[in-house]
Amino acid sequence: MDKQEVRSRIEEIGIVPVVRASSQREAHIAAEAVCKGGIPIVEITMTCPGAIEVIGELAKSAGPEILIGAGTVLNAADARRCLDAGAQFLVSPGFNRATVELAVRESKLIMAGALTPTEIIEAWTAGSDLVKVFPCGQVGGAKYIKALKGPLPQVPLVPTGGVNLSTAAEFIEAGAAALGIGGELVQPEALKSNKPELIVETARKFLGIIASTRAKLSSAAAKESA
Questions:
Q1: Res 63: pLDDT
Q2: Which domains does the chain have, with CATH numbers?
Q3: Which among 89, 93, 145, 217 is most buried, taking Cβ atoms within 10 Å?
Q4: How far apart are the C-alpha atoms of 25 and 21, rounded to whole Å?
């Protein structure tokens, strides 16, 4: 997939599962579970043991319709390693210009992290394809996203932190392009107890919430324009 196709897939699905596992085995279990649950997107964070190896293995074994990305990418050197391993997109918790510039040169999607309006504008103008708002839950959650979308309607925001089954709909209603979801989807206890079916079930619940919320918003917009 080219960069635009990757972005379209992320926005269409509406969820970027953030995999923070304690072993390579758990990372593979998590990736398989979210895909089985209907989310063909996996972000393997660099905090996972052997993250580069996991990304490489998944990139080789996953079908072409499954997006494998790298998360918690802090610098251009790590970004280069992730891309060489087969990562199709990069995610960082903050804004690092060199990392964004590398992704732009390589025509790979990057989702740089930002929190304040100034940081979001800086990341966006530098070339970030989407902007990860992190940690969103600690600064107002969905209300913060709604406030940001007022002056920045053109910037696709992906809130991460504070997104769960109770708040997911609120974030979509606030204008989020997609949702970054970590432990509320890829539950550590499910991995430790080897119960991937819990992750599969949760993935389906999140997808259902996004689908129903978007349908409601579309219906409301249609009535307004009629």
A1: 84
A2: 3-225 (3.20.20.70)
A3: 89
A4: 8
